[in-house]
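Lecture notes, part 5. Sequence design as translation. It can be helpful to think of inverse folding as translation between two languages: the language of shapes and the language of residues. The source text, in structure tokens, appears below.
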């Protein structure tokens, strides 16, 4: 299928949230989008669970989570949503684990984590959740790797990763768990490691080129990790700087692609939406050198390898949550001075969404 042209991408505003939301989690079950938790305009963790209905362009409130939380790790196990850790109402990490059955419409409490953690990253392999890293109540990073067995309702410890950290980017590819970046005590890391589930061992991979936070992260199906933009950590007394650089790791080669073979973005930005849509690499919104959040959107053409401008977002914002469902990019909430209730979708203009 030929890639669409830049002018064919179109933004459409959808039903707004009842109030501003940030640090929420979006998940897909059976082609439907669920939104869990997050922080409201007052910074309080929410218990809400909402389902978006495209047929009526409306949000449907479902039974709320028993435990309000923000920044939770969520894994989809069949028709169920496993909600792990996060920040609780007292603004400290929680070890509570709860599961929502989308068919039964009810919550169940599951076996808790061994300790309270926030900043956990979660992936799914063979219907088992793999939770890596996190930050404890003592504000120190953890190197823990744990696996949740749905049938037994048990967390099992696996070999710990070499570098303790939280807020990592983790991805499962070819039965291997790749863990990139993350933080230690707010300081971004260059660490990049891989866990082989067959040999139950960790391998240290070539480090990222620089310490940066709030970068865009895309894992391509071919096994390429794309790190885009972000806030580059300064050395010594130097301040952090926005960057437009793009770095690519090829898991097939086990190496980073040479810088001269990558194409930098047009705009320096951080804390933005990044996604692969219809072959294009799309980045939207975020923060840059302007005094307020960005609404600009650009995308890398899959054949020309050139960044092109797309139509801007309707609502400028950073820290938005996003998800791809049926070749459409949905962007929900975020921040523009205050938490935003905005909800919009990017899709190819010829297609009907509603």
């Amino acid at each position: 299928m030929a890639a669409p042209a830049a002018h064919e991408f179109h933004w459409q505003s959808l039903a707004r949230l009842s109030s501003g939301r940030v640090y929420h989690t979006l998940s897909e079950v059976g082609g439907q989008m669920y939104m869990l938790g997050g922080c409201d305009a007052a910074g309080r963790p929410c218990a809400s669970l909402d389902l978006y209905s495209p047929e009526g362009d409306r949000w449907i409130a479902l039974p709320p989570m028993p435990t309000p939380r923000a920044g939770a790790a969520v894994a989809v196990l069949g028709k169920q949503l496993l909600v792990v850790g996060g920040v609780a109402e007292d603004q400290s990490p929680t070890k509570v684990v709860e599961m929502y059955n989308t068919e039964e419409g009810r919550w169940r409490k599951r076996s808790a984590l061994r300790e309270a953690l926030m900043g956990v990253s979660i992936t799914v392999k063979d219907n088992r959740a793999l939770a890596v890293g996190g930050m404890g109540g003592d504000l120190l990073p953890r190197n823990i790797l744990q696996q949740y067995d749905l049938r037994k309702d048990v967390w099992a410890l696996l070999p710990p990763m070499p570098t303790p950290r939280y807020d990592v980017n983790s991805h499962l590819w070819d039965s291997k768990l790749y863990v990139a970046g993350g933080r230690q005590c707010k300081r971004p890391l260059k660490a990049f490691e891989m866990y082989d589930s067959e040999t139950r061992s960790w391998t240290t991979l070539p480090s990222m080129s620089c310490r940066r936070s709030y970068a865009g992260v895309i894992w391509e199906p071919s096994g390429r990790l794309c790190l885009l933009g972000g806030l580059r950590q300064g050395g010594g007394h130097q301040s952090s700087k926005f960057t437009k650089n793009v770095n690519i790791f090829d898991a097939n080669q086990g190496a980073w692609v040479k810088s001269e073979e990558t194409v930098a973005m047009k705009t320096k930005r951080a804390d933005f939406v990044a996604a692969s849509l219809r072959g294009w690499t799309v980045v939207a919104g975020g923060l840059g050198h302007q005094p307020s959040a960005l609404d600009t959107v650009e995308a890398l053409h899959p054949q020309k390898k050139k960044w092109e401008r797309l139509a801007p977002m309707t609502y400028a914002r950073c820290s938005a949550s996003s998800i791809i469902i049926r070749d459409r990019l949905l962007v929900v909430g975020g921040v523009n001075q205050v938490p935003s209730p905005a909800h919009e979708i990017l899709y190819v203009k010829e297609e009907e969404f509603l």
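The translated text above is only one of many valid answers, since several sequences can fold into similar shapes. The CA atoms of residues 24 and 38 lie 4 Å apart.
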